[in-house]
Fold:
Amino acid sequence: MTQQPGAARSPGRPRRPVGVQGSARPVQSTPVTTRLADIAAQAGVSEATVSRVLNGKPGVAATTRQSVLAALDVLGYERPVRLRQRSAGLVGLITPELENPIFPALAQVIGQALTRQGYTPVLATQTPGGSTEDELTEMLVDRGVAGIIYVSGLHADTTADMERYEQLRAQGVPFVLVDGFSPKVQAPFISPDDRAAMTLAVTHLISLGHTRVGLALGPKRFVPVQRKIEGFVRTMHEQLQLSPETIETELVQHSLYTLEGGQAATNALIDRGCTAIVCASDMMALGAIRAARQRGLAVPRDVSVVGFDDSPLIAFTDPPLTTVRKPVPAMGQAAVRTLLEEIGGTPAPHSEFVFMPELVVRGSTASAPGDRVRH
Structure:
C-alpha cells in the first residue's frame, strides 16, 4: 500500500526548499525571486501574494492560498513547515492494478481533488499474488480512513458476494464505487455509459463501410462487459439487421484486459472474417494491432481498430489510435465530491451517476477494404 502524492510532479524529483522566512536554506544557484515568479505564474497570482502565503500573512483568500500551495507541490518545492497541510483525514483509493494507464490517470485526478479539499489520498493497489480487495480494505479501515473509493473492484463482478460492502457500511465507513453497478449495494456509483460507447464505435465503423465488426472484451461476469455487449448487439442489430444471436455468437470474443488478451481475441475475430475490431480497452486495442500485423495485415488498410479509454500517450501510437474517450476527469471529480458529501453527513442516494463518453477519431480506422474497391 503506497501513499498517493498530493499533486503531480516529475517522478523521482526531490522536493526543493523555498527561500522564505522559516524555511530551509535556499539553493544558492537559483535566486529566490526567480522561484517566487515560477510559483506565481503556476498559481496565477502575483509574487506579492505568493510571499504573503509563504510567510503566513493574513488577508489572502482561502482558495488563493490553496492555489499557491498546490503550485508549490506541482513545481516540486517543499512547503514551509508552518504551511504543511493539516490533513482533514485519510481517504483510501483501491484500484485493481496500475499497468493499464487509465488507472494511474484516474488515481491522479482523484488524488489531486482530495488534496485540494485537505484530505490525504492513500493508494492501495491489487497486484497478482498480492493483497486482495478485502485485505486492502481492512488495512485502510485499520488506519482510520475517512472513506474509500473503489475503482473497478469486486462490485463490478456479478459473481462476487456484495455483503462485504454492507459490512463496511455497518462499520460507518463511507465509500463510492467507480466502474460497475450492483443493485445489491446501497452506495453511490460512478460509471461511463458503456452502452453508448459501443454505439459510438460501431456507428463510426459502419459509416466507413464495415459490415463485419467484432468486439473484443473481458470476462462476461463483469458489469461493464455486459453493458458493452448490450450496446454492441443493439447497434449492430439496428443498423445491419443481424440477429442478436448471430452477433453474440460470432462477433463477440471474450479474453483478458491485456495486450495479449486483445491479440488473442483479435486473431479469433479475424478468423471469422471481421474487418474491424472494437476493443474494451486501449491495451487490448494495441494487442489487436499487433495481431493484425503478425498476420501480414495493415492497420487501418486491412483492419480497423477502435480502443476504449483514451489512455495517456495513446494518441502517439502507430497508427494513432481511434478510441472512445472515458470521461476520467469528470468521473474522478464526481467520485470525490460524492464521497466528501457522504463524509460530511449528507449521504448520496443509492444511484448511479453515468457519464457520456466521446469518440476520438485518429488513424487506426479507415474505409472497409471492399468499400474502397467499389469506390
Notes: The longest strand covers residues 90-95. The chain is about 40% helix and 15% strand. Residues 246 and 360 are 28 Å apart (CA to CA). Residues 223-240 form the longest helix (18 residues).
